[in-house]
């Protein structure tokens, strides 16, 4: 018995939109509770994130980070793997990027350093993801557990390296020395100034373009190559994949290498683009939020891009909000949490009723057409 | 049937739509009390929907129902049970780790003290068991019972809840012919005691054997009611499909040549240490169809997986088209395909297709590495689309739309897609598992013809099926498996249902053992 179907846009666009709206409604109740007018709060957030050039720059800077970690989780999802380790992979990727900037950056300009940092950061992130992948494929250790563990190992390893190896003498802060100025990734406003466009200064840098390239890459890789085909086969029906001669071990490892590589790219934006030194905990939970980004974005690059923009907005708008009203900065985390709750955990809560409503409203016309 | 006789269940003008799908159209049905009533129809004809409406899973959009002349409007299966309707599902709803008694009582415990209700249930159960000939070991763990007995537990569950009307969904799908016969005897007894039984099935022979009346459904509508004694298989098939159907394809004489599949002392022990395939030896020659018969779960699936390179033999060897596969020299599905082997898997949902994929994506499964489907690093989407389109047209896969999701095709069309994929690569060896499982009669005819024509084109065909009719129709030689081992081999001209049935229960008939002339006639 074939079920009646609803068109794709209902599930892909309408449903997430309604879920986000619900999250905002509940956030509104929260604002009322802390004596802030929700409408004013929304205005402040919108103004802060999109209302002026610098704000937009910040929003897109955060968006860039979310794209990398979101894509990383999305790619793994296609093989049915839940990569919780984006946080650790991004952190270790940062080690790779940082080492390149600290060494090569001394005597090479950024346009030489950047490609090398892409390769090394990607390799470092991929390598960190490879170990859990291998353990999953060969030994059956569950990847969720191992990637979580590897986040802790990454944190300890980086803390050790920062304190014992990378920290310059005579400083108390757990951070490496600052990269040579020549190796810094140009900021977007600097880049556009070359062509005569004036933009306000913001941390937004060239890695944003690279993030967009990665979106295209993921789209091509997953839907237009035989490897992506094999990944999706393993993710949708492992026994059919085996029947088709697709090697599970190889695909799990390949998927996680690509996933870890994308997470590793995160450091390009934050380290080479903005901080210019390796700092303790520079990933700041972006790796975990990548899971929510991928969930919301339905593991599709366009969805990930849009979800990243939403989270970038929440991040930047929320920062402005706490500045304006003096509320705790963690209000952003609450907002994020609500969005994740409604779009991720409660994703299917409204689905049946929305689908039924749609069918009731539009099924008649379909039937007449049929 | 006299008109005055009271009806156990009466449906009038039942109508049900799922969105744009009209699952049941204006269905009326009357089932006289104390009779066995068959409901037949192809997949998607609306049988299951109708039964789900009676059982309270769905609510009809229009129409009414009566039980024993009283209006009946179930809003849940509890309501249906309370009104005396019981259902035995095709896939048993049993807790395998519970005992028979616990399973029967589950959900119908009275009071909160389990011990007391178990004790009283045991008495009642034993009473039921003796009066209907439904003996089961009450304290045995259900998972350890053979399927035939598990089914009895399901029937007992329904009777324990006071069922006066019993609905059986494809009850013989998992039974040997002997077990099926036993079930029919039980049904006879139930009928004699006044229980009304409705059987949903696609096996025409069984409908004729056991029912009093038959109702035929097609495309959601009831196309006819007939008394079983006035009809025949051909007639019923015609009603189901809406045109004349060849139930038996004329397969002609086989002309076997060199051997393309050689299996020697093949053993397979699975990961939990159970020996699934025991010292199997046989061969299949070019230009013949060898059928593997047996109750499902007796090593057929493992045999197909071994031949298809999916699992590795523990010992023994397989020679496929002059390539040797053994424990020391294992293979994989890609290599096996490269040896010229096509593999139509037993379960198209589990292995043959990926429901989420578009038809064209499913169409290249296993062959997605071929240069014809790739252009440098990227897939050649155009070539894939064209290849799929061409063969959907050729194999009459409907709708012939390569971008439609696999899940949205009917069973028959999904199967045609799988068969087209495997046969279009022109393999020398064809492994065919359950080619017509869940496939409508019209498509069965077509698929059978294709299997035979590939035999005539000189391919070696190994056919695994649990449908004896199919094996006897198609195979030139039949090998019967029991518990992972070969029981024996018969020429299909010498085979009949009794002989195969005995062999499936691991009894090799004496006259076949000694090479004596068979006494049974061909069915």
Automatic annotation (TrEMBL), chain A:
Spans through the membrane: 12-34, 60-81, 88-105, 111-131, 143-163, 204-223, 248-271, 277-295, 302-319, 331-350
Q: How does it sit in the membrane?
A: Multi-pass membrane protein
Task: Please give the PANTHER family that the UniProt record associates with this protein.
Answer: ABC TRANSPORTER, PERMEASE PROTEIN, GUANOSINE ABC TRANSPORTER PERMEASE PROTEIN NUPP
What protein does this entry describe? ABC transporter permease
Q: Where in the cell is it found?
A: Cell inner membrane
Q: Does the keyword Methyltransferase apply?
A: no
GO annotations of cellular component type: plasma membrane
* GO MF annotation terms: transmembrane transporter activity
Q: Which domain of life is it from?
A: Bacteria
Q: Which UniProt keywords apply?
A: Cell membrane, Membrane, Transmembrane, Transmembrane helix
TrEMBL record, chain B:
Q: Where in the cell is it found?
A: Cell membrane
Which keywords belong to this entry?
A: ATP-binding, Cell membrane, Membrane, Nucleotide-binding, Repeat, Sugar transport, Translocase, Transport
| InterPro entries per the UniProt record, alphabetical | AAA+_ATPase, ABC_carbohydrate_import_ATPase, ABC_transporter-like_ATP-bd, ABC_transporter-like_CS, P-loop_NTPase
Q: Name one GO cellular component term.
A: plasma membrane
Q: Which residues form the ABC transporter domain?
A: 9-244, 261-508
Q: What is its main location?
A: membrane
State one Pfam family annotation.
ABC_tran
Q: Keyword Ribosomal protein: yes or no?
A: no
Listed GO molecular functions? Answer: ATP binding; ATP hydrolysis activity
Membrane-protein topology: Peripheral membrane protein
This protein's name:
ABC transporter ATP-binding protein
């Amino acid at each position: 018995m074939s079920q009646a179907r609803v068109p794709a846009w209902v599930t892909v666009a309408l449903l997430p939109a309604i879920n986000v709206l619900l999250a905002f409604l509940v956030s509104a109740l929260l604002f009322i509770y802390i004596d802030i007018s929700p409408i004013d709060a929304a205005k402040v957030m919108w103004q802060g994130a999109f209302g002026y050039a610098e704000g937009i720059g910040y929003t897109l800077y955060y968006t860039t980070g979310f794209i990398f970690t979101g894509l990383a989780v999305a790619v793994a999802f296609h093989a049915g793997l839940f990569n919780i380790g984006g946080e650790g992979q991004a952190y270790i990727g940062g080690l790779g990027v940082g080492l390149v900037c600290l060494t090569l950056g001394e005597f090479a300009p950024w346009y030489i350093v950047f490609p090398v940092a892409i390769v090394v950061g990607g390799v470092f992130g991929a390598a960190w993801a490879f170990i859990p992948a291998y353990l999953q494929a060969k030994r059956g250790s569950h990847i969720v557990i191992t990637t979580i563990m590897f986040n802790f190992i990454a944190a300890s390893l980086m803390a050790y390296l920062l304190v014992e190896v990378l920290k310059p003498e005579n400083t108390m802060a757990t951070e490496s020395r600052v990269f040579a100025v020549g190796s810094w990734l140009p900021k977007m406003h600097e880049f556009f100034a070359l062509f005569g466009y004036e933009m306000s200064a913001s941390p937004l840098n060239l890695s944003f373009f690279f993030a967009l390239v990665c979106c295209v890459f993921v789209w091509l890789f997953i839907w237009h190559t035989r490897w992506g085909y094999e990944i999706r086969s393993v993710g949708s029906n492992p026994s059919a994949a085996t029947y088709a001669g697709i090697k599970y071990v190889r695909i799990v490892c390949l998927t996680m290498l690509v996933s870890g590589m994308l997470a590793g790219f995160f450091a390009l934006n934050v380290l080479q683009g903005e901080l210019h030194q390796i700092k303790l905990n520079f990933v700041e939970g972006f790796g975990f939020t990548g899971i929510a980004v991928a969930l919301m974005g339905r593991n599709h690059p366009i969805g990930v891009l849009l979800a990243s923009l939403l989270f970038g907005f929440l991040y930047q708008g929320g920062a402005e909000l706490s500045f304006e009203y003096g509320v705790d900065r963690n209000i952003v985390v609450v907002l994020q949490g609500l969005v994740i709750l409604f779009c991720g955990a409660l994703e299917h809560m409204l689905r049946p009723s929305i689908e039924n409503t749609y069918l009731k409203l539009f099924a008649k016309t379909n039937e007449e057409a049929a | 049937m006299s008109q005055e006789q009271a009806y156990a269940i009466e449906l009038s003008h039942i109508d049900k739509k799922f969105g744009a799908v009209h699952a049941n159209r204006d269905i009326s049905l009357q089932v006289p009390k104390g009779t066995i009533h068959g409901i037949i129809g192809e997949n998607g004809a609306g049988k299951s929907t109708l039964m789900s409406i009676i059982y309270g899973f769905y609510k009809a959009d229009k129409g009414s129902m009566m039980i024993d002349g009283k209006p009946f409007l179930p809003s849940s299966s509890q309501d249906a049970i309370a009104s005396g309707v019981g259902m035995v599902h095709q896939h048993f709803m049993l807790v395998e780790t519970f005992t028979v008694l616990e399973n029967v009582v589950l959900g119908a415990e009275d009071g909160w003290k389990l011990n007391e209700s178990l004790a009283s249930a045991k008495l009642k159960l034993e009473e039921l068991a003796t009066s209907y000939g439904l003996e089961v070991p009450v304290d045995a763990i259900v998972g350890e019972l053979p399927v035939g007995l598990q089914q009895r537990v399901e029937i007992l569950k329904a009777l324990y809840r006071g069922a006066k009307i019993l609905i059986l969904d494809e009850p013989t799908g998992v039974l040997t012919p002997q077990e099926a016969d036993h079930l029919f005897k039980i049904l006879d007894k139930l009928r004699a005691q006044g229980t009304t039984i409705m059987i949903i099935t696609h096996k025409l022979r069984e409908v004729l054997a056991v029912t009093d009346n038959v109702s035929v459904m097609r495309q959601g509508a009831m196309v006819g009611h007939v008394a079983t004694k006035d009809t025949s298989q051909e007639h019923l098939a015609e009603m189901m499909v809406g045109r004349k159907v060849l139930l038996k394809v004329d397969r002609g004489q086989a002309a076997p040549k060199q051997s393309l599949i050689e299996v020697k002392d093949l053993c397979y022990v699975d990961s939990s240490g159970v020996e699934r395939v025991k010292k199997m030896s046989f061969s299949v020659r070019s230009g013949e169809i060898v059928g593997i018969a047996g109750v499902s779960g007796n090593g057929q699936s493992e045999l197909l997986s071994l031949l298809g390179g999916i699992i590795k033999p523990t010992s023994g060897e397989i020679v496929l088209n002059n390539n040797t596969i053994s424990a020391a020299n294992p293979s994989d599905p890609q290599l096996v395909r490269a040896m010229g082997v096509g593999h139509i898997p037993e379960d198209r949902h589990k292995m043959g297709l990926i429901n989420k994929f578009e038809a064209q994506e499913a169409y290249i499964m296993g062959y997605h590495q071929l240069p014809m489907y790739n252009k440098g690093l990227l897939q050649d989407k155009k070539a894939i689309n064209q290849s799929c389109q061409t063969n959907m047209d050729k194999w009459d896969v409907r709708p012939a739309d390569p971008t439609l999701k696999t899940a949205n095709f009917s069973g028959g069309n999904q199967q045609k897609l799988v068969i087209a994929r495997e046969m279009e690569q022109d393999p020398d060896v064809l492994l065919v598992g359950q080619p017509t499982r869940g496939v409508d009669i019209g498509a069965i005819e077509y698929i059978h013809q294709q299997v035979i024509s590939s035999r005539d084109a000189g391919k070696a065909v190994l056919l695994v099926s649990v449908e004896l009719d199919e094996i006897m129709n198609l195979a030139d030689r039949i090998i019967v498996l029991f518990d992972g081992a070969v029981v024996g081999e018969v020429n299909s001209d010498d085979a009949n249902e009794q002989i195969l049935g005995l062999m499936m229960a691991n009894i090799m008939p004496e006259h076949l053992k000694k090479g004596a002339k068979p006494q049974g006639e061909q069915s």
